[in-house]
Amino acid sequence: MQAIEQVPAKPVNPEQVQKILPFAVKGTLQTFTKTVHGGVQHVVIKSADNASQIKLIQAHLQKRAEQYQAGDYSVTEHLHGAEMPGLAQLKRATANDIKVEYQALDNGGQIHFSSEYPLFVQALHEWFDAQAADHGNPEIPGHNSHHSSSAE
Questions:
Q1: Which of 13, 108, 118, 121 could serve as a FRET partner for 100 with CA atoms 20 to 30 Å apart?
Q2: 85, pLDDT greater than 60
Q3: What is the per-residue pLDDT across 17-51, written as a single tens digit (0 to 9) for each?
Q4: Which of 42, 48, 55 is nearest to 27 (CA)?
Q5: Which of 6, 14, 5 is nearest to 134 (CA)?
Q6: What Cα–Cα distance (Å) separates residue 26 from each residue in 12, 17, 22, 48?
Q7: The model scores a pTM over 0.85
């Protein structure tokens, strides 16, 4: 029996990311914060006075949340590769297995992912770790501390 090799996600090319996203990536901070039941992705603008970029971020995140809730991870797969940790399991989830909620923020938006099923929580955590490794995970003041409670 042959051992299965763990293949890392493919590196993300910043120019490729910018081609897919409707907002100026260099003007944003993006974080992936794991929670007890999943995680929260934040995308916020560095310059709070840029209302047009904030609207672009919000529209994009709302669309992505709808895609994720429908089980569509194709954009993520295109950017990171089919072998991205957690991705195969997330694609097997039904609409009721993982709850995906978009929320607009004054300076951008967030997507909250949660599940009551340990298998999908583990997949979300693996996926968030890979996202953070590929995109970076800078600290956004005031955003990380409120996601660490056991009530999440």
A1: 13
A2: yes
A3: 556 666 656 778 888 999 999 999 998 888 778 88
A4: 48
A5: 14
A6: 14, 11, 12, 14
A7: no
For residues 56 and 60, give the distance between their C-alpha atoms in angstroms, rounded to a whole number. 6
The answer to whether the CB of 83 falls within 8 A of the CB of 127 is no
Choose among 7, 18, 6, 37: nearest CA to 135: 18
Identity (one letter) of the amino acid at 77?
Answer: E
**What are the CA-CA distances from residue 48 to residues 27, 52, 67, 145 (Å)?**
10, 10, 27, 21
pLDDT of residue 46: 84
Indicate whether 3 pLDDT > 50: no
- Give the CA count within 13 Å in the CB-facing half-sphere of 24: 10
CA 147 to chain centre: 15
